[in-house]
Amino acid sequence: MQRFDLIAPCHFGLEAVLKKEIINLGYEIREVADGRVTFAGDADAVVRANIGLRSAERVLIKIGSFKAITFEELYQGTKSLPWEQYIPKNGKFWVKKASSVKSKLFSPSDIQSIMKKAMVDRLSDIYGIRRFEEDGESFPVRVFLMKDEVTVALDTTGDSLHKRGYRKLEAKAPIAENLAAALLMLTPWRPDRILVDPFCGSGTFPIEAAMIAANVAPGMNRHFTAEKWTHIITPQNWKDVREECMDEIDYGVETDIQGYDIDPEVIEIARINAKKAGVEKMIHFQARPVAELSHRKKYGFIVTNPPYGERIGEQKELPALYKTLGERFKNLDSWSMYLITAYDKAERDIGKKADKNRKIYNGMIKTYFYQYMGPKPPRRILDND
């Protein structure tokens, strides 16, 4: 079976989480760079990574890399790549996205058009045709330029992997599913521990936690661009992996996962999304303000994405909101709290400095992942809870 170098982009700051996921799938890491992890694998790896990775943005097949500081070098480097191994005569191909960091070539539109011409010229020579109908399957190309090093890859995923298929409805300012899953995996939370999100919005944190607890593969209920690349990956390959993932699901696992929001309509959206994900019975959603946050048990986790004033007029409400969150957290004996926010005065208003503070880029927004770590529960509680 053909071997590939596969590239999985992720949120900046969460490369270690993704690396661990890939290793757990059984694949060899080739390189970890800012915002992406490269690993070795075959067609089966493409399928398993797309269906099984929680923190990745997408899965790319690396076609090649080369140095280019002029557009002529970009053209020649692109033309030298073995496109015919991937793209059939009737394939629809284009450079979907070009990104450039600290490189001489930086115009995305120019990069895209020159690379398209080089691909056409290469395939024209190979297939002996001058005009491509491009009425077949899609083969979107993505290119990264970093310090004049060009990395070219085919996108096997299509819509970003954060689109699990369950979030048909959204509350305002939702957190991406893959970011929520990665942050959960950064915490010591385990399915046998309590988890509460007091600002649950569309329900992303509770739903992702429930999917982790029940071992539901995040890509089970969606499709991928590479499913139609039958000359590279067989339909049976996709079928086999989906069946394996289905067999590994355990909806009977006992959990205590709760999601609160002050808006009853938002809670209804969260319930609908949880039902779409198949985990509605594992989560308790309730319309409740953060001022009423409480729990009778100890050693629980707050994992949340509080408002951070991204809309005009909301900034003035933040100090009181974060102060209330801090007060409620203080009353939860032995609990831990993990929150992601772009509000840079969060620690001040919560009234306590975080044990750890990690910078994570949520798109173009710099956010802080504040980590307040409570004590570990005694062994007998872990055994009996």
Q: What name goes with the CATH superfamily of the largest domain?
A: Vaccinia Virus protein VP39
* Named CATH topology of the largest domain: Rossmann fold
Name the helicity range: 25-40%
Largest sheet: 7 strands, mixed
Distance between the termini: 46 Å
* CATH A-level architecture of the largest domain: 3-Layer(aba) Sandwich
Q: How many β-strand runs?
A: 14
The global form is elongated
**Which residue ranges are poorly predicted, with pLDDT under 50 across at least 5 consecutive positions?**
none
Strand percentage: 15-25%
In spatial order, strands of the major sheet run 2-3-1-4-7-6-5
Classified by CATH, the class of the largest domain is Alpha Beta
Q: Return Rg in Å.
A: 23 Å
Alpha plus pi helix count: 11
Sequence of secondary-structure elements: EHEEHEHEHEEHEHHEHEEHEHEEH
The overall number of domains is 2
Whole-number average pLDDT? 95
